[in-house]
Design a protein that fits this description.
Blueprint lengths: L1 H23 L11 E6 L2 E2 L4 E7 L9 E4 L2 E3 L1 E4 L3 E5 L7 E7 L2 E10 L7 E6 L2 E2 L4 E7 L9 E4 L2 E3 L1 E4 L3 E5 L7 E7 L2 E10 L3 E7 L2 E6 L2 E4 L3 E10 L2 E8 L4 E5 L2 E4 L8 E10 L2 E10 L2 E9 L2 E2 L17 E10 L2 E9 L3 E7 L2 E4 L11 E5 L2 E8 L2 E6 L2 E4 L9 E9 L2 E8 L2 E6 L2 E4 L10 E8 L2 E8 L3 E6 L2 E4 L5 E7 L1
Parallel strand pairs: 2-9, 11-18
Antiparallel strand pairs: 1-3, 3-7, 4-5, 4-8, 6-7, 8-9, 10-12, 12-16, 13-14, 13-17, 15-16, 17-18, 19-20, 19-46, 20-21, 22-23, 23-24, 24-25, 26-27, 27-28, 28-29, 30-31, 31-32, 32-33, 34-35, 35-36, 36-37, 38-39, 39-40, 40-41, 42-43, 43-44, 44-45
Length: about 500
């Protein structure tokens, strides 16, 4: 009996203790849920890139989430339990992204820092105007230091970059460019700068009563020791004239200073009829001879004679050529072209490429001095074949049309712009020009006259021709509008830039 009473007492005490314990444990136990990271997007970028972190168990209070980029804290911009957005911190480096809350920390994928994209800017250009070939300095930021990695355009026309730093580019105003904005494009973007205004300087070589010289925009400069001036070329600010010098012999002048050209051994005179400057090298073409005979074709590069051989074989009316002269020189890249006449019993219009002769006529007619122009890979030569005016493209002849083929069409110069071929000269002693073989009037002259159009060139869509109008005098036409050159008695060549 006592044992049963004791057992019941113990059970009662245990029950009472259980009840008391249950009353003291009213707060539930919290189980922690640490964050997880499933992905980040994007996985690379520069400082400031907005990165979205996707995962679980993030805190909805922004400051309760600590996000780091390879150990550098980033500012949380928005947060839900599954998404956090942050900006990649400026001091961050490539490495893992982590998210920490009061419940733990998660390590996510690597975020890779890349260099920022910095598009170019243009602050100024200098000068803001000039002609074709003007050296222009572009100042700005974020240019590429490799010249070819910058594309510069003048109102849409590309020009090659000469020198490049991160803040400065130098270029030449391109041929074919027009007045408009200068732009610079790199792999990082395009910058539009100020307007470059194209101006045109017109140079004409010829003679006044004082002697030979040249006009620049109508102002004449005399070359005192020049007794013949046939051709003019302008390179940058340097003006070159080819002709014959006082005392005898072929020569050219650079800014009025004469340079004698060497003669063939035993020869005592000569002429320079053409001049071309390329890459700082001066090319002149003409002839030298002994007392007016035994003329040999000459092409000088920087005063050193290049090889201009005569054609071999009987190409002049069944006879070999015995003499020749160069009337025109053109340089394209590394190739030197010259055009002229080889003579035997009759003339042979010829051009030479790097000293190799290419006859254009068959030697059965007399020919007049041809002129040459090279456009891309195409070689154009204007001249006569007997009484017929022609231009040849890569050796194929094209007739210069006229109102009466019985009369001579006399070409004196040639210029090519894109696919258009322009030739200046005269027809029945009236100044004319031809475009793609079709003849056009330059004057309204009638009756007896002795007009001519000696030189032709162009800038963009503008065509310039120098010559003589019987009713107006010596000067030049721009797109058919005549400008008189004061004091001019003869004009032989024109250059525009």
């Amino acid at each position: 009996m006592k044992k049963n009473i004791f057992s019941g007492l113990v059970s009662s005490i245990i029950f009472l203790l259980f009840i008391v314990a249950c009353k003291k444990s009213t707060t539930p136990v919290t189980i922690p849920f640490p964050p997880t990271i499933a992905s980040i997007t994007p996985v690379n970028g520069n400082a400031g890139t907005i990165v979205t972190i996707t995962g679980t168990n993030f805190k909805t209070v922004l400051t309760d989430n600590t996000v780091k980029f390879n150990g550098v804290v980033a500012t949380v911009q928005s947060a839900t339990t599954t998404t956090i957005t942050v900006a990649a911190p400026a001091a961050g480096t490539t490495g893992k992204i982590t998210v920490a809350t009061t419940d733990g920390m998660a390590t996510g994928p690597t975020f890779t820092y890349v260099a920022p994209v910095l598009p170019p800017t243009i602050t100024s250009i200098s000068p803001v105007s000039g002609g074709v070939g003007t050296s222009v300095t572009i100042t700005g930021t974020n240019f590429k230091t490799v010249a070819a990695n910058n594309t510069v355009k003048f109102n849409g026309t590309v020009t090659a970059v000469q020198t490049a730093t991160a803040t400065s580019l130098t270029v030449l105003a391109p041929s074919g460019g027009t007045t408009g904005a200068v732009t610079v494009t790199t792999s990082d973007g395009t910058a539009t700068g100020p307007t470059f205004t194209y101006t045109t300087d017109v140079y004409v070589v010829g003679r006044t009563s004082s002697g030979f010289g040249y006009w620049k925009n109508g102002v004449f400069t005399l070359i005192p020791d020049c007794v013949e001036g046939w051709s003019i070329f302008v390179d940058g600010s340097d003006v070159y004239v080819a002709g014959a010098i006082s005392g005898g012999g072929p020569a050219y002048w650079k800014n009025g200073t004469g340079v004698h050209l060497p003669l063939t051994a035993g020869h005592n005179d000569g002429r320079a009829y053409s001049i071309f400057v390329s890459g700082g090298d001066v090319y002149t073409g003409g002839l030298d001879f002994f007392n007016g005979a035994n003329a040999l074709p000459r092409c000088w590069k920087n005063n050193v004679a290049l090889s201009i051989p005569l054609s071999s074989g009987n190409i002049s009316d069944g006879l070999p050529v015995t003499s020749a002269y160069i009337s025109s020189v053109f340089v394209s890249g590394a190739d030197v072209y010259a055009a002229g006449i080889q003579s035997g019993s009759h003339d042979v219009s010829t051009y030479w490429k790097n000293g190799v002769p290419v006859p254009l006529t068959d030697g059965t007619t007399y020919c007049q001095p041809p002129k040459i122009f090279v456009s891309g890979t195409d070689v154009y030569v204007a001249g006569t074949d007997g009484s017929v005016g022609k231009y040849w493209k890569n050796g194929t002849a094209n007739i210069l049309n006229s109102t009466n083929p019985a009369f001579l069409s006399y070409p004196l110069s040639i210029y090519v712009n894109n696919n258009d071929v322009y030739v200046s000269g005269y027809y029945t002693k009236y100044a004319k020009y031809w475009k793609n073989g079709t003849m056009f009037d330059l004057t309204a002259s009638t009756g007896s006259t002795s007009e001519y159009a000696t030189g032709i060139t162009g800038v963009g869509s503008d065509i310039y021709i120098c010559g003589y109008d019987n009713s107006k005098g010596n000067g030049y036409w721009k797109n058919g509008v005549f400008t008189l050159l004061s004091g001019a008695e003869l004009v032989n060549g024109i250059f525009v830039k």
